[in-house]
DNA sequence: TTGTATGCGTTATCAC
DNA sequence: GTGATAACGCATACAA
């Protein structure tokens, strides 16, 4: 079914059908109705490829996700979901491209084949070849998280430094003097993963500023790692009375280790952090945490649409600092 | 950059460039090399829309996912990941379409706009209007899970009935006489959600066959629901010594409730189920469970590609029955 | 208010 | 072994 067939059946020219659909030219009520009736009857819809070829745009956004083999965290998943939802609201489709390594067929297809009008890149590294690739291809893009050279690009990120610092200040206000940071996995930290680096920076600064004793450790992104990490911490640093963390996937393990050690939160130990709301509320007791906003994807789509509309405008950034939701996992330092 | 420009620079016609790329006609080594050099230099790649228009296929698969607002379970997420990966291996892209209700713009775009060569539909209901819609549109599709009328369609599913029955038999072999089934959420069960229905059927049959006492209950798909569900179960049915479940998201809550009640698994209570390996291994002690295969997506893509190639072949089905991995959560019935 | 003609970038058919 | 050309389905400038 194509526009010519509709035109034939309605006894008009193809352009009239086209204009009746787009409304870019006035079409008499009578004609429009006749055309619409036939369109409804035959369930006609313009061929996307032909339209894309003619218009030079695909009405599709590319979303570059980490390789499928890696398990996505809840935060990442929430981000994908919100991107898809925001795109759908703007009547745009989303093309998925799993990409990690430098040489990736799917990524290259999306970038070079003009399959999308713009790209959202998630889980970028501080030095990311894909960013360079997109720049040289001249394809509009927005990154979630920022590289080491954030000035020329368009991005949206969570201000982990400030958020972790706020957690430290909150804990210090409650009288805690010995605080631990449970960071992301050693691999990520070593690879120069932005959130992990910036969280550490914020932690160090706040600890120094308040004259506290701080200890930071890396912890794999899963429950088992959280459990052993906390066991080790309790064993080696018994003076610690509070924990700050951005490792949501480790939370169930942390909870398990605490329960096993008969440590009562927040009576014996306080915990605060940055996590998707789902994880914070699933923790027992509910975790005092900055809820990573689910609208990250919405913002990314907004920025990308702006960038597509005006590619030469100076790139905009969005550094989100959601408020810390006071729940039940933080309390005054225990009297010794 | 387009094929004409390449042709101009190479001093050949567009068709020669096209054939040099596709290999559908012999091109002299000399010419081919010259063309390839220019293609490499300019980083040319065929325009996807033009190719789709000409060839009548898009080299893209549609993946219809539950609405983004609903949290995807780990099993669902693993499925999305494996679909994307399998498609990438076949040099195909994946277009995401969030759809739940009957009237969905994104779904309609994908179906009617010829944006994809075929569709994978996940989380279908026993009666699903989208299936009808795809059938009348004549678009090849594969469902993950099957409807009430599975004969005419192509699908891949997990045999929940058999798997839950096997769990029951395993528990009965260990001497358990009073077994509970913790099913999916009341809403899903009420809506006629296939896996929930079939799990119950398999449970009932196995329980009857072995002359056991069975009790089945619904449980929301999250930790909190699992916790309260188990508390209620322990309270009202103290005779229960074993549990079978397919509700992986409830597992952390179940674990918490057991710990709180000082019930030791598997000494006091045995648990077996169907879950993504990630959940089974995260449980303490590790859960004896049928690991839902991550290759579900791979199979779905294979079936879909077959269907696209030969749309008139009789539809194929795939009912997977992965083996139950014996871990640490099941043991002999406690002596009273 | 409507119709005609053109071109988007490919691939494929036909001619040489 | 290669080149000219038509066609895919649409949107739009131009003509009436």
TrEMBL record, chains A, B:
PROSITE patterns linked: HTH_CROC1, HTH_LACI_1, HTH_LACI_2
Keyword presence, Transferase: no
HTH lacI-type domain span: 1-55
Family annotation (CDD domains): HTH_LacI
Domain called HTH cro/C1-type: residue spans: 5-45
Matches recorded under SMART domains: HTH_LACI
Entry keywords, A to Z: DNA-binding, Transcription, Transcription regulation
Pfam families, per the entry: LacI, Peripla_BP_3
Protein name: LacI family transcriptional regulator
Organism: Plantactinospora mayteni
């Amino acid at each position: 079914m194509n526009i010519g067939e509709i035109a034939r059946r309605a006894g008009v020219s193809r352009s009239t059908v086209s204009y009746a659909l787009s409304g870019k030219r006035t079409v008499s009520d009578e004609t429009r109705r006749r055309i619409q009736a036939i369109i409804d009857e035959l369930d006609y819809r313009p061929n996307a490829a032909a339209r894309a070829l003619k218009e030079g745009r695909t009405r599709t956004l590319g979303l570059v996700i980490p390789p499928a083999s890696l398990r996505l965290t809840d935060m990442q998943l929430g981000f994908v979901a919100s991107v898809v939802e925001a795109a759908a609201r703007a009547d745009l489709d989303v093309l998925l491209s799993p990409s990690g390594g430098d040489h990736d067929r799917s990524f290259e297809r999306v970038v070079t084949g003009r399959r999308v009008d713009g790209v959202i890149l998630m889980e970028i590294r501080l030095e990311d070849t894909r960013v360079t690739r997109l720049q040289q291809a001249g394809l509009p893009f927005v990154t979630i998280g920022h590289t080491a050279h954030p000035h020329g690009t368009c991005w949206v990120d969570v201000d982990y430094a400030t958020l972790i610092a706020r957690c430290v200040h909150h804990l210090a206000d409650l009288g805690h003097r010995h605080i631990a940071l449970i960071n992301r996995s050693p691999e990520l930290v070593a690879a120069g993963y932005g959130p992990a680096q910036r969280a550490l920076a914020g932690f160090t600064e706040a600890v120094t500023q308040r004259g506290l004793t701080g200890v930071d450790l890396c912890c794999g992104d899963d429950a088992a790692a959280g459990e052993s990490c906390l066991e080790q911490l309790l064993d080696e640093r018994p003076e610690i009375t509070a924990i700050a963390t951005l490792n949501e996937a480790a939370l169930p393990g942390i909870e398990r280790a605490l329960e096993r050690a008969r440590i009562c939160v927040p009576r014996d130990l306080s915990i605060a952090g940055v996590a998707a709301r789902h994880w914070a509320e699933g923790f027992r007791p509910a975790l005092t945490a900055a809820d990573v906003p689910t609208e990250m994807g919405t913002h990314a789509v907004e920025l990308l649409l702006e960038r597509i509309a005006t590619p030469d405008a100076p790139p905009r950034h969005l550094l989100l600092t959601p408020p810390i939701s006071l729940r039940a996992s933080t309390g005054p330092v225990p009297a010794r």
